């Protein structure tokens, strides 16, 4: 895309309660997911200027399936409909929602993994885009860690989905797919595998705390030795 880097959209800040979605067919609940979703994408205005648009996802609806085939695999998917930044589009465009779709498939060693994802954007007339709509597809270089073994779920403080010309961040993510639950909520005993980012943080925290305590002990010991040396010198001086 040509042009400069104009930006607009909502300021993404603060901590929000995670949105919650589930996919159910009959009595079977196969997907449960919760996250705070934010993103940004690029599009061209009619002036050929490139705009970077940041957005929050506030859900207006969702759908999905527990039994589907895609790319020669058995898949399950969740499709989230939303209006970016709670935008109020013109009346004639009000039913044109944006959509984030995530497909899950079984892995070789995992019960589930992310097979693919897409972001559909409808550019409302105030956005002055050169095209009315666009589907952003997964980047060839996207690395997605989301997945888990056995009956475990997956959780991560920030799990990005990389598209061509767009990025979506799943913050405070918890998800399970290819489950057979009888509730649209996570079971109270549900176990989660952590993403590598959070696992590294969990490993680093005890090291930092230990280093701080060791530093404190050394400081106290030095203060004690200095005080003792001064006391000895004062004793010699008095003699």
Automatic annotation (TrEMBL):
Membrane spanning residue stretches: 204-226
UniProt-listed InterPro entries: Lamp2-like_TM, Lysosome-assoc_membr_glycop
Topological type in the membrane: Single-pass type I membrane protein
Domain Lysosome-associated membrane glycoprotein 2-like transmembrane, first and last residues per copy: 205-236
Compartmental location: Cell membrane; Membrane
GO cellular component: late endosome membrane; lysosomal membrane; plasma membrane
Main localisation: membrane
Example GO BP: establishment of protein localization to organelle
UniProt KW keywords: Glycoprotein, Membrane, Signal, Transmembrane, Transmembrane helix
PANTHER family cross-referenced by the UniProt entry: LYSOSOME-ASSOCIATED MEMBRANE GLYCOPROTEIN (PTHR11506), LYSOSOME-ASSOCIATED MEMBRANE GLYCOPROTEIN 5 (PTHR11506:SF35)
Family, as annotated: Belongs to the LAMP family.
UniProt protein name: Lysosome-associated membrane glycoprotein 1
Organism expressing this protein natively: Ascaris lumbricoides
